[in-house]
Amino acid sequence: MSKPTPDPIGKLDSVVRQEILRLADQFVFSGDPSRATALVMIAALFVGPSEVAVAEITGCPVAFVSVIAARLRASGLWTDAGVDYADWFATGNLGIANFALDIDTAEGVFVRTSKRENGQYEYRLVGDE
């Protein structure tokens, strides 16, 4: 009788899942209504902007991820080349503010425009033209 072979992909998925949760815990507490959105966005840092891959690693329904993905693609945060979250890593509170704006974008409150002012993207309310 042979010993079961460890599943390296399953182990990697577990490690990635733990890191996604660790990062989410730093910015969005467990009971926050935006938590699932944050998990989707953070997961895309690890697995790319693939709705199926993000749904699999987070456990979120594909339909939920697809709605978020459509908004993020429309705002240029998700592209065929990957994710554009560079502004999250700005120094001080600016990075946190950018993360919050992108969460609101994913939830349909804002749209990130292609315009920049002082190095920062401009956002507009959904419905404002």
Features:
single chain, alpha+beta, two-stranded antiparallel ribbon, 4 strands
Largest sheet: 2 strands, antiparallel
Described by the principal axes of the CA atoms, the overall outline is globular
The ordered string of helix (H) and strand (E) elements is: HHHHEEHEE
Q: Would you tell me the overall average pLDDT?
A: 89
Regarding quaternary structure, what we see is single chain
What does this structure look like?
The protein is an alpha+beta fold and 129 residues long. It has one domain. It has helices spanning 8-27, 35-47, 51-58, 62-74, 93-106; strands at 78-79, 82-83, 110-117, 120-125. The protein has a two-stranded antiparallel sheet with strand order 1-2. Strand 3 (110-117) and strand 4 (120-125) form a beta hairpin. Helix 2 packs across helix 3 (51-58) and helix 3 crosses helix 4 (62-74).
